[in-house]
Amino acid sequence: MGKLIGKVGVLAMILLSLGVLHSCENKNPSVVKIFVRSSSNELVSGAKVIIIGDPSSDPATQAYIDTVITNGSGFAYFNVQPYYDAAGEEDNPVAYFDIIAKTDLLQENGYIRSRVHTTAVETIFLP
């Protein structure tokens, strides 16, 4: 009977340890959110937004390009977790991206800093 209780206790400790280790994993997404506004400060839907990893930043950002069209609320939502997965979250917890926002007639550039498991927000004003 004593050996059975000991085995159940050890099994319970192993399961508890696995649960604690698994719960320490950060599940927050890595997101870049870009708002695009007109010169009159109105949100612009349908604008093309491109983010490009900046290799000349310090620390250098690995090659990465993504394009999203702003939604009806005037923002582009980029899930940059694939960048951090490829670059290695531990070695590269920060990334810098050049931003290009454009419509058929207008274009403006910007810059944003992103951290792993956080949401970075920037607003681009079209001329």
Strand content is 35-45%
Strand order of the largest sheet: 3-2-5-6
Name the helix and strand elements from N-terminus to C-terminus, one letter apiece. Answer: HEEEEHEEE
- Uncertain parts: none
Overall number of strands: 7
Helices, by number, come to: 2
**Helix/strand/pairing class, anyone?**
alpha+beta
CATH architecture: Sandwich
Determine the fraction of residues in helical runs and give it as a percent range: 10-25%
The outline comes out as: elongated
CATH class: Mainly Beta
CATH fold description:
Immunoglobulin-like
Defining key terms:
127 residues, alpha+beta, Immunoglobulin-like, four-stranded antiparallel beta sheet, three-stranded mixed beta sheet, 2 helices, 7 strands
Explain the overall architecture.
- It is a single chain.
- 23% of the residues lie in helices and 38% in strands.
- The chain has 127 residues and is an alpha+beta fold.
- It has one domain: Immunoglobulin-like.
- The strands form two sheets. Strands 3-2-5-6 form a four-stranded antiparallel beta sheet, with no helix packed on it. A three-stranded mixed beta sheet has the order 4-1-7, with no helix packed on it.
- The longest helix has 22 residues, at 2-23.
- The model has no long low-confidence stretch (mean pLDDT 88).
